[in-house]
Amino acid sequence: MFFSKSIPLSFLLFCLLHHAASGASPLYHICFSKANYTGSSPYHANLNKMLNRLSTKVPPTGFGVASTGLGPNKVNGLALCRGDVSSPKCKTCVIEASKELRARCPHKKGAIIWYDHCMLKYSNDNFFGQIDSTNKFYMWNTKTVSNPTPFNKNVKKLLSGLSNKASSNRKFYSTGELQLDKSNKLYGLVQCTGDLSRLECKKCLDVAISELPKCCDAKRGGRVGGGSCNFRYELSRFV
Question: Can you list the domains of the chain with their CATH numbers?
Fold first, then answer.
């Protein structure tokens, strides 16, 4: 069981979440837009078309963006699948995320949802190529380690190294491990959305990693999920 902390806008919201390693259940979602649309509006029709496009466009490569409509009825969206997820599982996750997000944020023009296998976001604003530093959540293992100081240093070391690797490869995705002692390894994963530049990916990940003391101090596992990048570490293999 993990605890999650979301930071939408300027306040902190704490809540208990169920963690599903299978990726079948949402980790978190945020209905971030103050603007609404009606069920019979052009925006609603464009949203449905845009989400259908993402379900086709994303699975082959694991990332995609799409826009539908014009002016105030234009909808922009993106979806990102975890780098090791197969195309069929990616497609399933994106379709499920589309359905679930519309159900959880009815009539909201902007919303985001995270699963283990994918993340999906849409908005009436053009957010492509911009680091989303507002929509994020924290999750962590409730168990702590017995040697906090060296453990925290190793977590940061692993994730910082993966940040360098991810921002330098085409998929903006990297995983790795670090031997802690004879019997324990630390496993990590970092990833960015493909609309960012390499510099923006590195910046996004470094800012997320800098929040380790807030979310995951001495915790046996943890993650920060955002609208533009995310990381996760565990003492057991999860990829």
Answer: 31-128 (3.30.430.20), 137-234 (3.30.430.20)
